[in-house]
Design a protein that fits this description.
single chain, about 625 residues, alpha+beta, Guanine Nucleotide Dissociation Inhibitor, domain 2, 2 domains, 8-stranded mixed β-sheet, globular, GTPase activator activity, GDP-dissociation inhibitor activity, GTPase activation, transferase, Rab_escort
Amino acid sequence: RNYYGGNWASFSFSGLLSWIKENQQKTDTGDECEDWRKLILENEDVISLSKKDRTIQHVEDFCFGDQDSAEDVEEAGALAKPPVFGAAGDHEGVTRESEKERPPAESGEPGAPSRDPDQAPGPEPASAAEGNGTEIASEGESSRSSALGESALEPGKAEAASSESSAPEPKKITYSQIVREGRRFNIDLVSKLLYSRGLLIDLLIKSNVSRYAEFKNATRILAFREGKVEQVPCSRADVFNSRQLSMVEKRMLMKFLTFCLDYEQHPEEYQEYENSTFARFLTTQKLTPSLQHFILHSIAMVSETDCGTLEGLQATKKFLQCLGRYGNTPFLFPLYGQGEIPQCFCRLCAVFGGIYCLRHPVRCLVVDKESGRCKAIVDHFGQRISANYFIVEDSYLSESTCANVSYRQISRAVLITDKSVLNTDSEQQVSILTVPPEGPGKPAVCVIELCSSTMTCMKDTYLVHLTCPSTTTAREDLEPVVLKLFNLNTEEGKNKMENEELEKPRVLWAVYFNMRDSSGVERNAYDGLPSNVYVCSGPDAALGNDCAVKQAETIFQEMFPTEEFCPPPPNPEDIIYDEDEVAPEEAGSSNSPEPKPESPTEESGSGGSTAVKKEDDEE
């Protein structure tokens, strides 16, 4: 690939259009020459690798924006042509199947992120100041964390004040504007959030990879009930300040959430329902229907029919334990998108000599017939590279290797909209919403809405991610939810309601696709893999990142059982160099093994950035 992160990547708008075009082409890339086979010895076998990524299917993109001309509109030196538009409200008419009508990718790096992976994140003046992100400090820094807690509990004050003073008319976003501002978009292929006490946050702090990343708090949890979007009270302060709950409901909710925090100490409360669903258990807890809905879909975020009582209690406890560490919701989002996270690990890897090769296909694994172990790979240059261990992402394995593997699928949709699903005084909101299943056998849909201060979309737009386990194509799974929450009318873009505040957001552009979920595949399901070849999966359907972290640690421990997984890197002054390396260092070589990290106190606060630091850090 010509971009970092595989299916965890983030793209600019034109980069995503190039990715769409690539995945709509079904042809395999043939071998230019077979000379590489001369490198294979008589006592060796080869395991061919896949020539095309088959993890993405059913890609459909649509444009609902205004029919302005996008000709001669330039993004990073590339010309973009307008899409095909259908009649107003004609969903079928606006699909862009013809590749010649698709805006081409920017030259050079069609899928590259908006910033150099080797460059530390920096502020972006055009939209960074809109954020309300807070500095993320460890629990060991009491003075910092207490200041954090106060600021995080009142998200969006600055934005609300500025919006009240000016209150401009909402701008009408055109397709040419989206193309022109395409570098403002960082569109994730996989939509996830970071639990504030999850495994990934702990790993980022421990390994000091967090120095390369910035984060923003998810500011609100939403629920969809009786055709309306409502905000869910999460923290104690939210519950008692809520106007949508009666005083009796507030007491009910607080009593139940307090029980969930230490439910293990009260087994008599749930033992009778251990074999029942969590939804059934909630009906026995003297909770009103609205409270049951909030807990099931917006706090525990579990299935109404498939989730057992213990699983639901564990999910609720995890949610509650993550509250208050960095803000008034359990979640963080990385500025510039989820694709920043793999790039951050690549940066630290590069500091200590690791090499990440883009545009470097591998043809096959070379296996020794006698030992059965993999000895080397052969790349598309005909170069043979030897190693002791080989880690292969599932998508690189050929169909013959995966013949007995049964995959799950994830349905994904990405929308660019003109306003939030729930308007408030502050426009800069990061929201998570769970839409209950449409009916029996249908999955719940997770909706994450990102504002421009997350550095994932241009000003005056929102980036909306929809995700669910697949039952059919992504469009068939997710379009009913899109129609509930958004307006696809290309003429007016508004619902004809008396109260303008109830108008649905208008979709300007959308893409649907199915992504393979290989997270549950056991190693023995793959045919003929040598013992020193390890397979890692792509993204899973869960909201958090625990599966990926556990998998990475498991593979590492199998290879190096006596080593620590992702240990804290040494300080630059503690590194002892070999004699042959000292001379060039003293001569002023610019290739220093470790860049000096910036002091957290020097970071600009205007960008809403956050800094994750090690616990009990002594400054």
